[in-house]
Structures are given as structure tokens and as C-alpha cells.
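Bug: C-alpha cell stream looks shifted between consecutive jobs. Job 1:
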Amino acid sequence: MKINVVGSGYVGTTLAASLAELGHEVTAIDIDEDVVDALNAGTSPVHEPGLDDLVAANAGTTLTATTSYDSVSDATVTFLAIQTPSREDGSIDTAPLEAAAEMMGEALADTNDRHLVVVKSTVVPPALPDIAKAIETGLGEPLATDTDGRVAFGMNPEFLREGTAVTDFMHPDKLVFGADTEWAINQLQEVFHPLLNQHEPAVITTDPATASMIKYANNAFLAAKISLINDLGNICKEFGLDAYEIADAIGLDDRIGEQFLRSGLGWGGSCFPKDTNALIAAAKAAGYTPAVLKAAVEVNNHQPERLLALLERHVEVEGSRIAILGLAFKPGTDDIRNSRAIPVIEGLHERNANVVAFDPVATDNMRKQFPGLEYADSAAAAIERADAALIVTDWNEFESLGEEFRQMDSPIVIDGRNGITPTSGMTYEGLTW
């Protein structure tokens, strides 16, 4: 199939390159000329394991990039993967997505062939009619129904985790197809036919609004589960118990499951904070206050402060040199959006500490936010002269730092991720164990 993907961020680039790998002819459309040039040169504009290889393997053949919408009419399906930034109240700003939707409608206005426009961006259900209306405005006619119309509308939420996005795409647990016409559903099934044949994921066929809510419910549930285990972990710490031992036991209950029971500093990134806050804001706008989701956010926001409180038990923080190991919101990515390292750095600055930081891949991104911070070239260099070290991201390479920690005058390590094994002579505190 000929497919367009509008937007070349994490989701759009992964989608475009993966669909090209499946054998489709894909055109990536983005307003950033540097991004377009990178894709055409065979380089991914975002850091994601395996994505560079996919882009390099397909660029110039099944994957091309452009800043123009001129190619839109040659395709049968277009995915909109435009970012929807958060407003101060947590609600999402769909203006960029609506603008792209209207341009899409304009590009399809003079064609006669049928076309499916699919929202891939994460959008709260009440916002979908505005996006559909934007397409109609550009198109100059109503969207298709089962009996009439050329351009159909659909929703296909993504369930990709940064750091494993390519694997998640190629081996999905489920595929959610939201559309109001049988033709649109058939097109989505055709797009993902190779995955349906190879891996037989669960397929949910529904309307666009329900498809959208499935994504939000998915992320909200996982965010709440992490906050609950963190809340329980905080209690365990006060009782002098190891939350990980307890989590191993409760994870054996198939009603609970073992995943997302790693207590610690909490969640960050581009999805959980944004989606949880957006759902809370949308619910409030509809007249309902979701108490559990609000509590999940509150617990998550408080975890960095608990880490710093543990540090203060062992070090006079003011004037001390504190090493932060890990800046990305999770290992395997350079993404610092909503990273727990940010409030940790801010808290240390408020306490007048001297901060040195290291991350294997995210340093350049964090330097843009904290240009005056001292950054080390290695974990060993970060902790060499430090009075204490904080484990903020659980990169595998930190596990083998035993000898380096022993080079500290009096090794003090506060671990927010259960990322290292304490060694003899080390003063070690786990956040919830």
C-alpha cells in the first residue's frame, strides 16, 4: 500500500520506518527540513534502539520524506502523528494536529479516489470531532459514511514504549482500529496485515472515540499501578521492609501480575504524565474529578523529594558535591521529557549543592535545559570526587560500578531505581527497600 505519515517524532518515525519494513511504500511528511533531510539520508531524527537500522535499510526505496503534502493524493491511507502539547492545566493543545488535519483535507480536495485519514496522535475522545471537522473544512465536504463520501476518518492509538518501540510495533499485544465505516476498518486491517499474519495479536474493532479512550485507560491504569506500588514501597521503607521482596510475592497473584511493580522514583517520559493529566483535565471539563488518578500524580510527583530526604540523612547537602547517575526518564532512550532527574536537580540546586551529572545518551538534551550544570564524560568521572551519588535512571552499566564507588572517600549511594548492588564499605539507601 501507499501510505503517508505526517509528523516524524518518536511515534511518526517508528511508524513510518516500520511500515516501510513491512513492505508498504511510505512517505513521511514533516515541516522540519532537517528532519526530512535526515530521513532521506537514512538517519533517524530520534534516538531509539533499532530505528536507525530500519530507516537506513528503507530510505530511498520504500521510505521517502518530504515537507510537501503533494504526495498525499497518491496514497490510500494517511496517519497523523502530530504532537499535542500539554497546556498549564494539563489539557492537550490540539491546534497543531487540527492544522495538519485541515491541510490534509485541502490536499485531498481535488482527488476522486477514496482515502482514509487516521489519527495516530494520542487525543482525548472529546477532541476527535474537532479534528474530523478540520479535515472537512479543508476538504470542503463531509467525511465518508458507509453509504457516501470519499474521505473516511479513523483512530489507531499506539502502544509503543520508548526504548523498545520497534520491537513493540513488530510484536504487538493488541491492535485497536477505530472507525465508523466498514471500508476504513478494512483499510486498517490491510495496513497491518503482515503483523496480523505473523503474530496474531488481539484486534479490537470499535469507533474512534472508544479507540482513543482505550489508549488513555491503558496508560492511566499503568501509571496508577506504578504509583500504588510506590506508595506501598514508601510505607515499606518506613517499616524497615524491602518493597521488592513484597512485590515479588504479590506479583504471583494473577489478578495483579508481576509487571510494573518496580517501586522507585516514579514515571516520566512523554506518555504517562501527559496522558494522565490530559485525562484528568478532560474528566473535570465533563464534570467529574478522578480522585484515584489525581492521587497517582501526587504520589509520583513526591518521589524525588523522598529521594532527597534520604540523601539528607547522610550528607549535609549544602556545599556538597552530589553526582546524579542517569538523566533520561528511562534507560534505552535519550528522552528527558518529565524525567525524574529534573526535579532532583532542581531540589539539589535549592539546597545549594554542587551537582555533577552523567547519562550515556541523554546529556546533550539535559544540557539544553540546564546549561550551567556540570556534566561528566563517564559515570566513573561523575562519582570520582563526589560526596554522594544518586541513582536516577537504571542503566545497566551502573550495576558494574562497584570499584568506582570505592574510589569515593566515603561511598554514599542513594538508589532511586534498585539499579545497583551495594558493596562492602558503602553507605547505601534504597528508596523503597
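Job 2, same session, no restart:
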Amino acid sequence: MTSDSRPLAVFDLDNTLSDARHRQHFLQRTPRDWDGFFGAAPQDPPLPPGVALCLEAARQCEIRYLTGRPERCRRDSLDWLALHGLPEGRLHMRRDDDRRPARVTKLEVLRRIGRSREVRMLVDDDELVCDAAAKAGFRVVRADWALASDALRQAQEKEGRT
């Protein structure tokens, strides 16, 4: 089986593979400190259940990463994945100026990549993303192993920031 024929396993980053709790305080102030929030991402510890699931999925699937992080965070995100021994895989990010909700932007990417490849699973912590993906027919694994803040949930849904 070539990598072009293997199914895809798609993983979110924040609070799925990486523990973003230490930086959520940047979102609990007004105005929210997005530079601080994303600037602290390289210090995220890995979340062992998410990492283990990603490594297990990589035995049968090509791994893709799908994050609401803006494009300007690409280098930090790729470095973090490599540092923590996660499989290589294409990283899908939002444009720096895209403020649509994550449930919209992520579903758009899933549909695009799902036109030519089987998406075996999406692993994400955002309930609205998971609900939208499941409704669209994708198999969803809800990453419920990290505790997200209300501020992060609002940022994901209302501000289109992560």
C-alpha cells in the first residue's frame, strides 16, 4: 500500500496532542492576547493519550494535522510535532486573516481532503467541530483527555482564532 492509497487519520493540535492549559490565561483577559497565546505554544507539554493514538494510527494511516492555529505559527507547530516524536504529516492551518469558526474551517478542509482519500478518523477536542464532522459523515474520536477553558471554547467558535 502506498502512502497515496492509505487512509488518512486527521489530528487537531491544541488540547488533542498538546496541552494548552498553561497558556489559556492569555484568553481570559480583555482584549485577548493572541500573540502571547500562540507564542507560548512551543512550551506545551504533549498529551500522552493523544500522542499514543496518533502513533497507533500511523501504523495504518497517513497522518494529517488540522489546526485552527494561524499560518504564522507553522514553524513552531512543525518543530513541536518533531520534538515530541509525532509522525510526519501535512499540516493544515488557517490563513492568518481567517476568522471563521473552527467548525466551518476544519470541515471545509476535511471535505476537500476527503474527496480523493478516505478519512478514517478525525481526532479533535472541540465539540462543535466534532459534531459538524460527524453530521457530515466523518468518523470522529472526541479528544476528551484535556480540560479546555470556556475562554478557549469561545475563541474557537466566536472569534475564529484557534
